[in-house]
Design brief:
- The structure is a single chain.
- The chain is elongated.
- With 186 residues, the protein is mostly helical.
- The protein has a domain at 57-185: Tetracycline Repressor, domain 2, CATH 1.10.357.
- Helices cover 80% and strands 0% of the residues.
- The chain is built from nine helices and no strands.
- It has helices at residues 3-18, 25-32, 36-42, 47-72, 76-94, 103-109, 114-137, 142-166, 170-185.
Length: 186
């Protein structure tokens, strides 16, 4: 792994675990085993530029994973169930769901930085677009698909946060069950 990728990988994990404000550049430098000069060589504008790179990296990883799951299953209902089940297994085995949520970063930084807000918005929009396309392919009208995709994005992201705060997988299990019922009814 090259130095820039290493910095992004480690910083992403730290930002997700501790939040943007909870992580200093010195902690990132130490965790990466690099010099301050090496960090600034790749991220000359500092911590916010690094955060945006982390969000873009998460964007790619999360959307690739969602696309792979949604292409593997014939219906939105089955794909959604598989995706949420994967999140539940990750939570139950690891005790956390890093790599799949950006809520902590959004709540800290979106109102303070337009570039960060835009990077977060792009990720949520990509997720919604994947759900929307699958719903349209399942025969939902564009209006219904848009509304359901928005609700899916918000529900799953909120469910992840509830799992983390409650230290229990029940919120995602409930969301999976309710989304399945909703998708059957349409």
């Amino acid at each position: 792994m090259d130095t820039k990728s290493l910095i992004i990988d480690i910083a992403t994990t730290l930002f997700q675990q501790k939040g943007y404000r909870g992580v200093g550049l010195n902690e990132i430098i130490k965790a990466c085993g690099i010099s301050k000069g090496a960090l600034y060589h790749h991220f000359s504008n500092g911590k916010e530029e690094l955060l945006i790179a982390c969000l873009q990296s998460l964007n790619e990883a999360i959307t690739e994973d969602i696309v792979e799951i949604f292409e593997r299953y014939p219906s939105t209902q089955e794909a959604t169930h598989a995706m949420v089940s994967k999140l539940i297994v990750n939570f139950e085995t690891e005790g956390t769901i890093t790599g799949y949520t950006i809520s902590s970063m959004v709540s800290e930084m979106a109102s303070l930085s337009d570039p960060v807000r835009m990077a977060c918005a792009q990720l949520y929009q990509k997720m919604q677009d994947i759900y929307f396309q699958k719903l349209v392919a399942d025969g939902f009208s564009k209006d219904a698909a848009y509304s359901i995709a928005l609700m899916m994005t918000a529900s799953i992201e909120g469910g992840i946060m509830l799992c983390l705060t409650q230290k229990a997988s029940e919120p995602l299990k409930t969301i999976s069950h309710m989304l399945s019922k909703l998708l059957k009814e349409f």
